Amino acid sequence: MDNGIQHRIHKFLPGEPPVQQLLLQRNSRMKFNVIDNIRIVLVETTHPGNIGATARAMKTMRLRNLYLVRPKIFPSAEATVRAAGADDVLAQARVVDSLAVAVTDCNRVIATSARERSIPWPALDPRVCATDVVNSARAGPVAIVFGRESSGLSNAELELCNSVVQIPTNTGFSSLNIASAVQIICYEIMRACDEPADPGLAGRDRIPLADHGRMQQLFHHLEQCMIDVGYLDPARPKWLMRRMKRLLNRAQPDQSETNILRGFLAAIQEILKTRTGRNNGSG
Ligand code: SAH
């Protein structure tokens, strides 16, 4: 009847904050499909058949956005055969050069892993993860990342992610075929999409979450500031930045919160500069 477009008239009150104005404008423009904000990212997939089977797994669960980071062979006839009718998902798939590029505009990035890591990331159950993904997707793009068939995701790639999801399996035999893993995650996402929105997130949605690019800028700024004050030794960084990234990713700051943190870091750097100048002058 309304073709999915909702028409609402809102009169702005004098003094209404600009962010609220923007959100009211955005919300009134159209009722979008949450699933369109969810992307599946495959990193360096070796077998084209797995790419096709992934497209099929996605389409059966209503997902459409597929990103391929440096696939070994793509496009390929084998992928098309294994897609079994989901060739539209393959045709729209975006091929990119790095995981960072695939997730740069995402406000939430979830890794999938078959195994425990030495520095455990916050690990989620697929059902909890799906609820989290769908709630985040109401505010902006979200990615779920799948690793190589042979070796999964590297630790550097995991550092780009907010959390890790592990599908419970037989202990000691935990590695699913990649398309099977995609199927399970997409099934949970489809189920979560059909649940009513979490009202507790309504207030949080007023200011957009910091996207991946903004978080990377914050990490670089924090690292530089910790070096400047002498807290982080670049020659012996140990796990410090990895732990700080884990902490900040878990907190999921919004754009205004990352601005405050960066303002605070800049103020520290400014004082350091003044002190260094004074010391140089007197010496
Ligand atoms: N030998 C690899 C397994 C790779 S399986 C390793 O040890 O990491 C290929 C991909 O499928 C994984 O990177 C992950 O994205 C997904 N996957 C497989 N089993 C999984 C599980 N139990 N939970 C979550 N993801 C899984």
Q: Which key features would you list for this structure?
A:
alpha/beta; binds S-adenosyl-L-homocysteine; 7-stranded parallel sheet; disordered N terminus; Helicase, Ruva Protein, domain 3; 283 residues; 2 domains; Alpha/beta knot
Q: What is the chain-wise order of helices and strands? A: HEHEHHEHEEHEHEHHHH
Q: Which structural class matches the secondary elements?
A: alpha/beta
In angstroms, what separates the terminal alpha carbons?
78 Å
Share in β-strands: 5-15%
Morphology: elongated
Number of strand segments: 7
Look at the structure and give the CATH class of the largest domain.
Answer: Alpha Beta
Mean model confidence by pLDDT: 85
Number of helices: 11
CATH superfamily of the largest domain: SPOUT methyltransferase, trefoil knot domain
Number of folding domains? Answer: 2
Written description of the protein model:
This protein is α/β, with parallel strands linked by helices and 283 residues long. It is 47% helix and 10% strand. The chain is built from eleven helices and seven strands. A seven-stranded parallel β-sheet has the order 3-2-1-6-4-7-5. Helix 6 crosses helix 8 (178-193). The protein starts with 17 loop residues before the first helix and ends with a helix. Bound molecules: S-adenosyl-L-homocysteine.
